[in-house]
Amino acid sequence: MTSPQDAWDTAYHQLELQLDGGKFDTWVRDARFLRYEDGQFVIGVRNGFSRDMLQHRLYRNVARVLSDAWGQSAAIRFEIYSLGGTASATDDSDLPLFQVLNEMQAASTEMFRVEPLPETSMADRVVPQAYAPLSESELNPRHTFDRFVVGGSNRLAYEALQAVVEAPGRNYNPVFVYGGVGVGKTHLLHAAAHICRKAGKRVIYVPSEAFTNDLVNALRTRTTAMLRDKYRSVDVLIVDDVQFLAGKESTQEEFFHTFNVLHAAGKQVILASDRPPRDLTALEDRLRSRFSGGLVTDISPLELETRMAIVKMWQLEQHIRLSDPVVQMIAECAASARELEGAFNMIAARVRLSHQPMTADAAARILHRLETPRNHVRTVTMADILNAVAETFSVPVDEITGKGRTSRVSLARQVVMLLARELTELSLVQVGDYLGGRQHSTIIAGIQKMSQLLAEDADLSALMDDTRRRLL
Ligand code: ADP
Ligand code: MG
């Protein structure tokens, strides 16, 4: 049996091979195995910034590699350690952004290739057991209403939430905000939470996956009564990324009742999702109809002017002066606010380091490098596909590659076949090898079967989309 230390060592070397763009050097190299405790790997990191990065952006990557090395699903908790032994002495999570960026720059120039931020690399797409619901301190203090630039695309959502925080539970209930990745949903939710807390309300903000984890833990430790108390005694419950409730029946059940209790008591519920309630196909009807029962509002992709206004706000905040053409260039190269942040940080870091104004030419050169990763399609491996399907369809990998032929296992296996053909360059024979040495005719038949099923079954097709999104 592999010891936790050995599993970590193996994973560490794997990560060194797998992580690109200086990520390993910047975030993982100093990470140390500290101990294995309560079913979790406790990994020491150098500072708060690395911890946040690992917890929020790289969790999925690290957990996957570690699970492979460990031979079973691995949960990780990151803790700050210092070589001198006094914990948190080196915690620089409160350093101003520019210092952190400078440190990043020093650590690796490569780091400034802004991540394409595929959905899969973000922790909010992950269900780590170690992911406690965000507590008050973990609301991003920078996500406030006054730092939220309002334009045509987000005005309705902004105004809805403004109205709600004025009198929680009275205006619209629930409020459901939806929109693509990086358009500012989480920012708005945090902003609402800040205001309500300031007004003395009891507020819980929780990504839906953390809610699921809480529930799983409560069931395990037989503390569901406490869990209910916790969620049902608030004035405002804010649940982010509710699309991840899809397919999780017991969580939906629990959430449905929590929702009803709060709603009946006139407490405010605020929800965000990447798609409108009607498209949450793997959600029970009763929950979907609850979600649509108040105000549903979307944030569409931010217009160029809004993106430019955001960049202008950031440059003021960070005392960086950029010419209008450069501001425009940054705004043009990034579709979402999240990409915008990456592009802006890269330019800002350069300006600080060089102490020179940024010329349009230099900006164009820097931003050009962003294009590549953004258009770059991540290489998906067979292991990625197997893990993702195992997770979404709740069938262990060894069953997928094994001999079993129950309908659940066969279905998961066929999904793997189809995704392998779509997302990898592997031949059908190779795919067959990965799937426990199956014939290539079996793979063809599986793919055909799957394509047919997908055409008929909307729920399955949604699950499939979800899995695909996790991979890209
Ligand atoms: P989502 O939750 O929709 O994926 P986020 O709320 O995480 O998006 O937004 C991504 C980043 O862009 C955050 O840093 C956020 O502060 C910033 N952002 C998004 N929209 C705006 C806006 N209208 N004004 C200022 N910053 C914004
Ligand atoms: Mg979000």
Question: What does it look like?
Answer:
By secondary structure, the protein is α/β, with parallel strands linked by helices. The protein is built from 21 helices and 8 strands. Strands 5-6-7-4-8 form a 5-stranded parallel sheet, with helices on both faces. A 3-stranded mixed sheet has the order 1-2-3, with helices on one face. α10 links the parallel β6 and β7. The longest helix is centred in the C-terminal third of the chain and has 18 residues, at 337-354. It is globular and about 60 Å long. The two termini are 33 Å apart. The structure holds adenosine-5'-diphosphate and magnesium ion. Adenosine-5'-diphosphate (ADP) is lined by residues 143, 147-149, 154, 179, 181-187, 310, 337-338, 341.
List keywords for this structure.
single chain, 472 residues, alpha/beta, 5-stranded parallel sheet, 3-stranded mixed sheet, 9% strand, globular, binds adenosine-5'-diphosphate, binds magnesium ion
**Estimated share of beta-strand residues:** 5-15%
Mean pLDDT: 82
Low-confidence stretches: 84-137, 372-377
How are the strands of the biggest sheet laid out side by side?
A: 5-6-7-4-8
Order of helices and strands: HHEEHHEHHEHEHHEHEHEHHHHHHHHHH
Shape: globular
Q: Distance N terminus to C terminus?
A: 33 Å
